[in-house]
Amino acid sequence: MAESSSNSSSDSEEEIRDEKGEDWTVKHELTNANLTGHSEKVGMENFELLKVLGTGAYGKVFLVRKTSGHDCGQLYAMKVLKKAAIVQKAKTAEHTRTERQVLEQIRESPFLVTLHYAFQTHSKLHLILGETAYWDSLY
Question: What catalytic activity is recorded (predicted)?
Answer without folding.
Answer: L-seryl-[protein] + ATP = O-phospho-L-seryl-[protein] + ADP + H(+); L-threonyl-[protein] + ATP = O-phospho-L-threonyl-[protein] + ADP + H(+)
